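Spend some time on this chain, tokens included, and walk me through the fold:

. . .
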Amino acid sequence: MTEADATTGGADLQTLARVVGRVRANIERVIEGKPDVVNAALVVLLAEGHLLIEDVPGVGKTMLSKSLARSIDCSVRRIQFTPDLLPSDVTGVSVFNQNSREFEFRPGGVFANIVVGDEINRASPKTQSALLECMEERQVTVDNTTYQLEQPFMVIATQNPIEMEGTYALPEAQRDRFMARVSIGYPVEAAEIAMLTSHTGSNPLDDLEPVTDAAEVRKLIGIVGQVHVSEAVQRYAVAITSATRRSDELTLGASPRASLHLVRAAKAVAAMDGRDYVLPDDVLRLARPVLSHRLLPSVEAAMSGRSTGAILEAVLAGVPVPQP
């Protein structure tokens, strides 16, 4: 690498840090006291992934997704998933035009840069499956015609894990397409009191202005793509996912797609920290949000009270971290 290349890389990372800082500050005007959750959402955005927000009602799942969407001057659509939602409502449908005597394509809710899917587990499995192609391949196929989705493209889905009546559990193939799963959790007392002050007079989302646009986000994604991942770090990421597949306590381990998501997310974290290279610690700290929702515990492990999180911790402890 020449000195000019190094200077350019440093300037790019400074630009990324500046823009990410603006977006983070914007979101934290709405979501108070949850810096880790906000950071995870930004990591997934820069790593070209999709985010699943799973938590009990009323903790700000939809507020987080909306505040991220409004912080970027790009196309945003919200889909309220209900049992009567049809796949064509998500992907679009061909409609016959009486004047031209031809079929015209009417785009569905996924034709946007950021798609907010509220309560995704309330839709039927048939409707949920309408997201599979667009989340993985950034395209939609309707009536044998394929339509490309504009970049960046990110699905932010929310679901309530407590209320099971009238819901359909996400299939493994669907969960595997989400780069990370986060839980917001209840705020600390001081943050909840501050929320009462800021949210009762007006809705803070109404005052939120975009601080960046889609073109700049595409540039930041390109910067993240240039972050270096050494062979040792790649081997470490694969060793973690491979260990989940060998675990006797898991009936389903992490897929090769999980390995890819883990490395992509680690590159985003490194760039946000001002580094043009990934550390093993980046991979380790992301293993929990990136892998936990993809794993299925065995019947024996579930009956003995072993949670997926505890099993993953044991797996991570058994994989040696490469030394610099």
User: Anything to note?
Assistant: The longest helix spans residues 3-27.
